[in-house]
Amino acid sequence: MKAIQMSKFGEPEVLKYIEVEEPTPATNEVRVRLFAAGVNPNETYIRTGTYSFYIPKLPYTPGFDGSGAVDAIGEGVSHFNIGDRVYVAALLAKRNTGTYAQKVVCDANAVHKLPESISYKEGASLGIPALTAYRALFHRGKIKPGDKVLIHGASGGVGLLAVQMASGIGATVIGTASTQEGKSLVKALGATYVLDHITEDSIDKIISLTNDKGPDVIIEFLANMNLETDLKMIAPYGRIVVVGNRGSLEINPRLAMIKEADILGMALWNTTSPEYNESLLAIEAFLKSGIIHPEIGAELSLKDAAKAHAQILSKNAHGKMVLSIN
Q1: Cα–Cα distance between 318 and 326 in angstroms, integer?
Q2: Per residue in 47-75, is it b (16+ CB within 10 Å) or e — as a string?
Q3: DSSP letter at 111?
Q4: What is the tens place of the pLDDT at every residue in 164-195?
Q5: 153: closest CA among 129, 125, 122, 135?
Q6: Which residues pair with 38 in a beta bridge?
Q7: Rounded distance between C-alpha atoms, residue 218 and residue 150, angstroms
Q8: Exposure string (b/e) for 90-123, b if CB count within 10 Å is 16 or more?
């Protein structure tokens, strides 16, 4: 079968499109014939060998998210049949085989039925983005109906799902994006207000949109740039959930003291089994009720994975980037 494999860490060109041996499912495992794979920013960090959460053994096939049909079932698995439409939502550290491939083997509890209303490309947009959005909003941010939630960079794969989840449970969502296309998409998916990315000069605008109080919850994807600004506009007793960061910064802790604000780190790798199961049940319910619908951004072929890694960190990303697999 064809797969993307890296035999060394480095820049995108270490991702090679090659022929590899087809994996065989063991006990309690399922093999999925993939038709689409999702591309996530953390996969680019893993590729460099500097990602503190996970450094794989080499050779390594990247990818955590994908969708397709079950084509082989290991012993002990009774809840799937050959041909079932499924999506994969897992951190596949157990094996060095990921979803940038025609087939993937993973634990049966990481494979989930894909509703008929959701395409394979859309199914590949779930997994890490949906789990991250849910964990940021509900496990860490503890949002509730009526909260005012600011989502930075809301036009990305995680951001758009967060917009839909938050607005779907009755929160007022303020989203930011850098392009008119991105802002239109964020608005269409449920944000009450959509603005350019927040700066020192636009703090007053946020304050005015929240009845002079500030957001109750801020979902932050670039903390090294925005955390001090977040602290200046967060509501008293508010929560700032740090989902992404690309550097260090110096801030005055008094800003957090004045508001008694919480700065909450978040890493999907820390999700417990009960939290993981809760998240998946919630995502399933959101899909069935129509509260969330994945938005596809750039589409590339599997052989163009290196190009995808070069593009994924672009500030102009809209929706989830996916690799189509033949």
Answers
A1: 24
A2: beeebeeeebeeebbbbbbbbbebbbbbe
A3: E
A4: 999 999 999 999 998 999 999 999 999 999 99
A5: 129
A6: 322
A7: 5
A8: bbbeebebbbbbbbbbbbbbbbbebeeebbbbbb
pLDDT tens by residue, 16-61: 999 999 999 999 999 999 999 999 989 999 999 999 888 999 999 9
Task: For residue 71, give every residue at least 6 positions away whose Cβ sits within 8 Å of its Cβ, in sequence order, or none.
Answer: 31, 32, 33, 82, 83, 103
- The top-scoring range by mean pLDDT among 45-54, 113-122, 233-242, 265-274 is 233-242
CA distance linking residue 153 with residue 148, whole number of Å: 16
Question: How many whole angstroms separate alpha carbon 135 and alpha carbon 241?
Answer: 10
Q: What is the DSSP letter of 225?
A: H
Contact between 137 and 143 under an 8 Å Cβ cutoff? The reply is yes
